[in-house]
């Protein structure tokens, strides 16, 4: 606190810069085009920049993780070459989107070599993730690595002395960790900016937000600098970066993927809406690989907060009954996303699925308000105190969403919490009714009323946070792109700018009831098959 | 509130008395011996009183529910005759222990007849509980029946307009409901006494407590007036009556057996330690029948609070690794129960199970204190307000345990709750360590430091509430009886009176980690086989 916060940041940034090998640096011809106001799409930079070999381009572009792992198990590829390809590609992605916080490529390559030796010696892979590089959000702890989570006041904390439960599980299954990814200050906005690591840019269009809070994962996975990235989600933090950047993003039910042992911006005794860890990926089967591997590893033996619920097979259905929500009255949805939803609905109907258009459902406005009251449950404002501890300023998106009213933050009583719990249960009751009365397997709905939008203009995420309030699992399927020539202005949405978001990824969100992660996974595979093949 | 509370009670009692058929009344020669200070064991009254036919004695004494259901499915017995036998036996049990609140024998017999016709017409049973009478705690709602839960202020409430989720599931599986069972005022003591229905007596010895809060179930099931009774447990309320009365009592993990739609003494938004519904029974396989049937019915389709976790098969182990706790330093355990535990441990060792004597474990004293702080989470004291609403007095056990200090009840802040949550997580962390470091499948521990004791002297239940704090499932196995000639006085326990508790049932408690109800059920079957065969 004595030291000026900018000095601390400068030192931290120098440390990060040093972790980026000289020989993987992009030429200034590319770097000079990088700016948070540029219209540039940088998704093709890795293939075109000349830093990757043909083989590295093939490894990172033409396979999903499931495929690469099979090739490593068959010794067609080594973990070393796969890891090196993704280390390089992640380094490239970072230079154009600022998606990383910590890079530990040497450690990763050492681990990859160890795994190659292991396979040679043991004659079998270490586990279902053998040899595969997996990226994790900065909040996950990895022994010997820092978890700053974007707070200047956390810079001086020592490196982690133990692994998060999920990190242990990934390692026990043969994964290689190589990078941690960037997030917003407080982890509670959809703009992944903080004073330590700066802002994540959207690789589809640098001037758009990459989403948040797992924004670094969104950008990195979209650029195929990682094929399985791990985020966390308490209001949309896996799904928002997924749909902003154009990847799959699966928010599981609470406590099925172990959340324990992370560096947390809030109090340990946090109550109300609970966060969930989950994967961002480029294919549904990589989501399944991650979920099945993690849950089959019995997370409850690693983490005292994990649910001891085995992964179970689901009924093999040929057709689904799908409830479709196009929009709620409070937040009209951009034409871009309505087009994606309607096109998807038509295709699903044609494919023989049973579609129920939902006109009446519980209020997204009330749910969003209730959720934000839950997020403000800590009267101490611990997440904000961590900002103030160093004297660093609030970033714009935090200021926009959380500046207290002139009379100050409202102190909540225990009685108010009990009332909130009751209101929340009412939502669970009403949504169960929607599911049962319509015999729904899943709901398809917008993940947001907006695609990625210019930085610091995203704000409230009503279409994701509803499902956090209910503790329902939900998954983003990337689908179609915004097109200014088709998705014309809508007088109901004055801030919709077809030009600004042209080219931004669109999506649909698929939702199942709580703990029905298996059913959701199966539905995502079925729906993706219809939409994307 | 205008009406004198005693007038309301008199009217309610007259209504209850009317529900007891004249022809099932016990002679005064028996009734005159019933008193809360009598040494009498009334377990043999049903067989000896002359009200039951030979066949009814056979039906109620020589079979468990699993067996009777098989016989009904095979048409060797009708549901009508089975139901009539249990209606009569429950009526007898009630007259000597005061275990019932509501009796609806006519409705039950009508339902039984319907089920017999159904079997005839459909050629198959309605479900795995076809034709079987099942008793439920007074808090469960059944359309057209009252749920007074022992509050005078609830007497004037109308009969339930809908069923509890669990009641719907039981009925959908072919069960017959016939009685609801007695509980303590507030549901928060181990002495099932209230001003509406009076006090439940222990059939093993009338002067001892039947336990609580599911005390009516304990007495009824012990007398075989029911073979499967449903209780609820937030601090021991299934297990305490089970071990007081000498039955099995299985407290599942939270929300696996649906809890929703009950008449509740507390606020709907209650948080912290959550209650669980579960069975009391006379055989382990009846516990399994209940649990598998309920969970296979997908409670999450009935109840928005139920966990969508299917019942899963468990690894077939030949031997278990069992951690054994004999006692904690704060609450020395009666010689009666220590003898049961040590005898059980020896037998289990002889049977080839791996025994780990646990000497170091988290503090039962701290856990009990924390639990009681959680139970006081509602600053409104809603459970007490329901007493005060009618002007009825607090019963002795409620007075003893909950009389506020002279300075009044302490108002808790939201921040205190978050601190409590954190402390609770620490317990989960520490117990996981105990399980993992010792590679335990289950723990065997006392369910209490006391057997059933004279009325209003039971008080704190540290050995049950620990597992509620953790949300771990736990099950009582009735085992051995207190014997004044063997279980001699212990200077560490001045209030242990070998004479008073002579003949009281002893027990062991088996505990598994949260959501491991399947593993616990399997362990209870294995351990029961060793102990009881």
| CATH fold description of the largest domain in chain A | Amidase signature (AS) enzymes
Low-pLDDT stretches of chain A: none
Number of strands of chain A: 13
Mean pLDDT of chain A: 97
Return the CATH architecture of the largest domain in chain A.
Answer: Alpha-Beta Complex
| Cα-based radius of gyration of chain A, to the nearest Å | 22 Å
Largest interface, chains and sizes: A-B, 41 and 41 residues
Shape of chain A: globular
Oligomer: homodimer
Q: Cα distance, first to last residue of chain A?
A: 55 Å
Enzyme class (chains A, B): hydrolase
Active site (chains A, B): 137 (charge relay system), 213 (charge relay system), 237 (acyl-ester intermediate)
Binding site for substrate (chains A, B): 187, 213, 234-237
Domain Amidase (chains A, B): 81-520
Main traits of this protein?
homodimer; 533 residues; alpha/beta; Amidase signature (AS) enzymes; 2 domains; eleven-stranded mixed β-sheet; two-stranded antiparallel sheet; 19 helices; 13 strands; 39% helix; globular
């Amino acid at each position: 606190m004595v030291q000026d916060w900018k000095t601390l940041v400068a030192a931290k940034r120098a440390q990060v810069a040093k972790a980026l090998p000289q020989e993987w640096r992009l030429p200034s011809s590319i770097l000079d085009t990088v700016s948070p106001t540029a219209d540039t799409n940088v998704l093709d930079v890795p293939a075109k920049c000349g830093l990757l070999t043909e083989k590295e381009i093939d490894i990172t572009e033409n396979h999903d993780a499931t495929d690469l792992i099979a090739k490593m198990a068959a010794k067609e590829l080594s973990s070393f070459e796969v890891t090196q390809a993704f280390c390089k590609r992640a380094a490239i992605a970072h230079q154009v989107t600022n998606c990383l916080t910590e890079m530990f490529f040497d450690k990763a390559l050492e681990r990859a070599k160890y795994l190659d030796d292991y396979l040679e010696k043991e004659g079998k892979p270490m586990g279902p993730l053998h040899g595969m590089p997996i990226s994790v959000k900065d909040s996950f702890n990895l022994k010997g690595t820092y978890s700053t989570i974007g707070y200047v006041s956390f810079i001086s904390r020592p490196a982690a002395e133990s692994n998060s439960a999920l990190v242990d599980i990934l390692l026990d299954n043969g994964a290689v960790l190589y990078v941690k990814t960037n997030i917003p200050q407080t982890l509670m906005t959809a703009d992944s900016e903080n004073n330590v690591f700066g802002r994540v840019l959207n690789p589809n269009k640098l001037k758009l937000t990459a989403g948040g809070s797992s924004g670094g994962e969104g950008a990195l996975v979209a650029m195929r600098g990682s094929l399985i990235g791990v985020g966390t989600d308490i209001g949309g933090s896996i799904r928002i970066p997924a749909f902003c950047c154009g990847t799959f993003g699966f928010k599981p039910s609470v406590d099925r993927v172990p959340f324990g042992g992370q560096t947390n911006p809030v109090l340990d005794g946090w109550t109300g809406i609970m966060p969930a860890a989950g994967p961002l990926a480029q294919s549904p089967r990589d989501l399944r690989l991650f979920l099945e591997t993690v849950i089959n590893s019995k997370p409850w033996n690693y983490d005292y907060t994990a649910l001891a619920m085995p992964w179970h097979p689901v009924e093999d259905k040929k057709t689904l009954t799908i409830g479709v929500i196009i929009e709620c009255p409070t937040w009209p949805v951009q034409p871009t996303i309505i087009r994606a939803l309607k096109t998807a609905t038509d295709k699903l109907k044609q494919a023989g699925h049973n579609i129920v258009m939902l006109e009446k459902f519980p209020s997204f406005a009330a749910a969003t308000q209730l959720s934000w009251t839950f997020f403000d449950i800590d009267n101490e404002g611990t997440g904000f105190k961590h900002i103030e501890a160093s004297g660093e300023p609030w970033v714009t998106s935090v200021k926009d969403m959380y500046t207290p009213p002139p009379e100050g933050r409202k102190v909540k009583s225990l009685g108010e919490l009990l009332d909130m719990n009751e209101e929340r249960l009412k939502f669970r009751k009403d949504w169960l009714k929607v599911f049962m009365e319509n015999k729904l397997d899943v709901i398809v709905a917008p993940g947001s009323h907006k695609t990625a939008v210019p930085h610091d203009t995203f704000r409230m995420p009503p279409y994701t946070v509803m499902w956090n309030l209910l503790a329902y699992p939900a998954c983003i399927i990337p689908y179609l792109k915004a097109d200014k020539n088709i998705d014309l202005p809508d007088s109901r949405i004055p801030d919709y700018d077809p030009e600004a978001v042209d080219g931004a990824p669109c999506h649909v969100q698929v939702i199942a009831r709580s703990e029905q992660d298996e059913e959701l996974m199966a539905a995502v595979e079925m729906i993706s098959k219809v939409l994307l093949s």
